[in-house]
């Protein structure tokens, strides 16, 4: 089992990353605002299934790679550090959008299409795989037990965090969008806070040592 303090840090990282702008978030918000909460929840179900697909694939892949290639940890750490710094820059770059800026969509999709697009949006998003492959190893330590079981544990925690946050976003998407449009100052605070946490996580990852 992964120690509680490590797990809490991972939860913080997962929380910040889930509110970072990306295809999953934009799709859920768009459907929630334009088609209602029910459509948002159906889309969310597809996104969650996409996460489960990534977790299974990455967990077995990490188990094989980390045990077979000693240098793999360093490579994945470098990729993860660069990725987090990239996300931090994306959050505060000039003219960057806030997560609730969506274009009106007049096309109403059926439940099957909503679920399928949510699933494919996640499965076909390379950033999700990069996150798992580069971030999970920072919290995995062979002395805590099976690498596979630790990967699956982190995966379950990440899915729970992602589902909880996205569930709340689907519930409040329309109201929060109005709030941000009326209070643009909060958008800057949200962006810089996100960038600060991402940068901290990137530095911590860069300074971490192989286990």
Question: What percent of residues are in strands?
Answer: under 5%
* Average pLDDT number: 78
Shape: globular
Task: Please mark out the parts with pLDDT under 50 across 5 or more consecutive residues, or reply none.
Answer: none
Q: Compute the gyration radius: what is it?
A: 18 Å
Could you give the order of the helices and strands? HHHHHHHH
- Strand tally: 0
Total of domains? 1
**Percentage of helical residues?**
over 70%
Task: Characterize the largest beta sheet: strand count, sense, and whether it forms a barrel.
Answer: none
**Would you tell me the structural class of the helices and strands?**
mainly alpha
Number of helices: 8
Termini gap:
15 Å
Write a structural description:
The protein is mainly α and 211 residues long. It has one domain. Helix content is 78%, strand content 0%. The longest helix has 36 residues. The radius of gyration is 18 Å and the shape is globular. The protein starts with a helix and ends with a helix. The model has no long low-confidence stretch (mean pLDDT 78).
């Amino acid at each position: 089992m992964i120690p509680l303090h490590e797990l809490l840090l991972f939860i913080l990282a997962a929380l910040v990353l889930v509110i970072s702008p990306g295809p999953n978030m934009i799709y859920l918000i768009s459907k929630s605002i334009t088609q209602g909460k029910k459509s948002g929840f159906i889309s969310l179900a597809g996104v969650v299934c996409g996460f489960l697909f990534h977790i299974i694939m990455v967990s077995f892949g990490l188990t094989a790679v980390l045990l077979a290639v000693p240098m793999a940890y360093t490579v994945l750490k470098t990729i993860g550090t660069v990725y987090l710094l990239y996300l931090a820059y994306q959050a505060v770059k000039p003219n960057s959008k806030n997560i609730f800026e969506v274009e009106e969509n007049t096309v109403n999709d059926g439940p099957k299409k909503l679920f399928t697009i949510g699933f494919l949006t996640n499965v076909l998003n390379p950033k999700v795989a990069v996150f798992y492959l580069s971030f999970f190893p920072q919290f995995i330590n062979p002395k805590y037990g099976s690498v596979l079981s630790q990967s699956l544990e982190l995966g379950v925690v990440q899915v729970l965090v992602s589902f909880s946050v996205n569930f709340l976003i689907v519930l409040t998407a329309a109201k929060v969008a109005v709030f941000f449009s009326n209070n643009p100052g909060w958008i800057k605070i949200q962006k810089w806070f996100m960038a600060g946490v991402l940068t901290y996580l990137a530095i911590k990852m860069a300074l971490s040592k192989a286990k």
